[in-house]
Amino acid sequence: MKLVLVVAAALVDADRRVLIAQRPAGKSLGGLWEFPGGKVEPGERPEETLIRELHEELAITVKEPCLAPLNFASYAYPDFHLLMPLYVCRRWEGLPQAVEHQAIRWVPPNRLREFPMPPADEPLIPSLIDLL
Question: For residue 26, what pLDDT band results from cuts at 50, 70 and 90?
């Protein structure tokens, strides 16, 4: 089975809320809410991927020292196995915008389970609740 490395971020605001993004309707798992991020390209480090993806998806600028690894998910989808490190980020430049998503929302960690998420994202919620 093919292993796919995807990296995700839990952006945390001053009110200790986490940003989640809604996947576009036409994409795989469309309409579900996720932690923003994306696939690690060949030759890229996970932190570089996350900085690139957050800029592309949310129009924000993140510096590498502001990314702190928190946890990871390992999930077997029917066609591939996903390995997804989750980083916490509390500092960035710019105002997050839904550039590539249907919508974005700031959610208290204890309410994240109210939003339908891909199965790989769900196991990351307890770590965020414990942290925040």
Answer: confident
